[in-house]
Amino acid sequence: MNIEVLKMAAKDKDPKELVPEAAQTSDAEMQAFFEEDRDFLRAYIGDDSIGIEPAPPGSGLKTLGIDLEKGKMYVNPDFFTQMRDSKKPYVLFHEFEHFRELRDLLAEKNGDKIWRKHRAKVKASKRYSILDNTWDDTRMNRGVDSRAPALEDAREALYKEDLFPETDFTKLPKHLQFAYTLLRERMVPNEACIVAPDVRAEIDRLRGIKSKSGVPLLEYASRPDIPPSVRIALQDKYLDPVSKRFFDEDVERRQKDQQQQGDQGQGEGQGEDDPKSGKDPEGEQAPDGAGQKPEKGQKGKRKNPEDQFKKEYAEYDEKNPDKALPAEDIDKAVKKYIEAKQKTGTEKTEEEMLQEAYAREAGVSVEDLRTYQNFWSEVENIQNPETNERVIEELRAIFRKIIAERMAPRLRPKLPTTEGEILARPADAVAAIKAGIQEPAVWETVEVHEKLLERFGNFDVTLVGDRSSSMTESDPAGAVKNIEQRKAVALILEALAEFSRELEDVRRDLLYDLHVRTEGWAFGDDSEIGILKPLSETLTEKERVAVYKTLADTPGNATKDFKVLEKIRDSIPEEDWQRIADKKLRKIIIVLSDGNSSDQTATQRVTRALREKGAIVVGVGITKSGDAIRTTYAPDGRVCEKAGQLGVTLGELLKEHLKDL
After folding, report:
1. Dmax of the chain from CA atoms?
2. Please, are residues 165 and 187 in contact by the beta-carbon 8 Å criterion?
3. DSSP state of 148
4. CA-CA distance, 519 to 2, in Å (whole number)?
5. What is the domain partition of the chain in residue ranges?
6. Radius of gyration, alpha carbons of the chain
7. Least confident window among 26-30, 258-262, 276-280, 385-389
8. I need a labelling partner for 524 at 20 to 30 A (CA). Which of 342, 409, 459, 547 fits?
């Protein structure tokens, strides 16, 4: 499944002249095709630097096309009219992954050289081309699966109904059995293919190869987040030699079959030295086509051994059509892109490429990811002025203590003792008895440490940010309130996400389980009220960036904290309220604000309702302008007079409610 490079018309010509009117799709039809799922497309791509768009009006594009410099893949909806609706998005995204891979490869250091070398190898050998395409499709489809898991059924249907409906490959040449099985068994995991025993043995061997850290070779070599050059290198090192060996066996087998057929039809007078016998004068088997009259202009040149598999290759092409333009057109497109990249000095380092791959997997743009990572490096260094310790380290100390107190007691051996369950030192025992010592210290016993206090449950933290316009103001020390709010929120979310990961690592050793969840909300006027991060034990890169970017925008003309508290109250399921009542869940809601509530009475009413049901609700005023929070959220209203200390304040608040968890 390759992609066609868009060949735009010259500026002095009308592109519509290049394609018959009947072949054109109306602009309205193309726009309708994309408008229907525009949000889904945007969410799938997850990177503002690239995109999928309808083919430009009058471009004459019949299928797919790309513009490497603009980072766009263009689509003519007519390309998908032959497919069932459920398969269309999967095919579209699969092709987009090819485009993404090509762009990534060209962005690598010496990427153009790697691409040209690889392209030449693909053009020179159909056998290698099929191996490359099937294995690369495995990687492309894993990319689609990771970004659109809901399309899994469409993927299986595509491979079971259209591409490889049969699972018995034993009638095919072994090099094709090998390539097809690698792809189909990955795409339809619950169906094993039937192949020759030695092909199965090779696939099993490759599946058994693992790195020192235990990562399987085939799993790593098809990951969508590794650089494309690594995929090619691993393919050439591990898969291609196997494919080539099977190919050589297939060629030899075909030649023997042809020789047997030739021997059966031989008449008298055809000896081994006869040109039509199929053997050369030295008695060795000649390649297929030897002894036949060379074609015009090919005097003395033997046929390509791959010609013996024309039928099988044609069947593959029929189901997996190659949509690429002639190689020279692709070369021109690549050359143009490389020249533009060199002019702008955008040659990328390996670190930059890995970061781009990670950003794509996370569903965010590289720029947003870098911005957040730089921002977090500042947050990590927030210090508590009273202890001169980083707040994050103080929280980590509490996390370690909580985990230690929940660890299951272990049986610890104690030796030597004068009595016990195990004779640990028999030789010493014999010597001691001979020496007249009646109770030698040669035994080992087991101590059970004191049983821990009973601890159990969940701990939820809900952070509520202020998006009112006054948050753009600075305090007397020059600290901007919405910047400091972002730091404080990021500090708590990141700290608790780290705590949750540590719990997951030791969960099997915990005597009393614990789950830590976080969520984020915001308020301002009606349009600013909403969720920033859903309640969960994780904090993804996409969620980190979303919280950071949303809290940076504070346009609200009101302080409707009561409305967001009502939404939070209504979002808590009845089973959670029951767990709170049973002391199996502690839920703390922290509201940040720098001004008076738009309706203090309504805020007090919903706060009281939450507290009566067992939730902990705390209000934190940001600078003296938020002093009204003391009364609005009494008795748990407090003020952080210096915006720059908001992270410390929230850290102390979290420590306070974690200490007896």
Report:
1. 115
2. no
3. -
4. 42
5. 15-245, 411-448, 458-658
6. 34
7. 276-280
8. 459
Task: Judge residue 447's burial from the number of C-beta atoms within 10 Å of its C-beta, 0-12 exposed, 13-18 middle, 19 or more buried.
Answer: exposed
Q: Which two tokens stand for residue 126?
A: 């159909």
Task: Assign 66 to helix, strand or coil.
Answer: strand
CATH of domain 458-658: 3.40.50.410
Phi then psi dihedrals of residue 481, to 5 deg: -65, -45
The SS3 call for residue 594 is coil
Say if residues 10 and 80 touch (Cβ distance below 8 Å): no
Nearest one of 634, 555, 637, 550 to 593, comparing CA atoms = 637
- 211 by Cβ neighbours in 10 Å (0-12 / 13-18 / 19+) ranks as exposed
Expressed in angstroms, the distance from the first to the final Cα of the chain is 55
- For every residue of 377-388, which 3-state class applies, written as one string? HHHCCCEECCCC
Q: What is the DSSP string of 190-217?
A: T-PPB--HHHHHHHHHHHH-B-TT--BH
Residue 170, token pair as written in the block: 């034993």
C-beta of residue 79 within 8 angstroms of C-beta of residue 125: no
pLDDT of residue 485: 94
Residue 288 near residue 255 (C-beta atoms within 8 A): yes
* % of residues, the chain, pLDDT over 70: 71
How many residues are there in the chain?
661
Full-model pTM = 0.49
**CA dihedral over 32, 38, 40, 46, signed as positive or negative:** positive
User: How far apart are the C-alpha atoms of 384 and 391, rounded to whole Å?
Assistant: 6
Would you say 591 and 618 are in contact if contact means Cβ atoms under 8 Å apart? yes
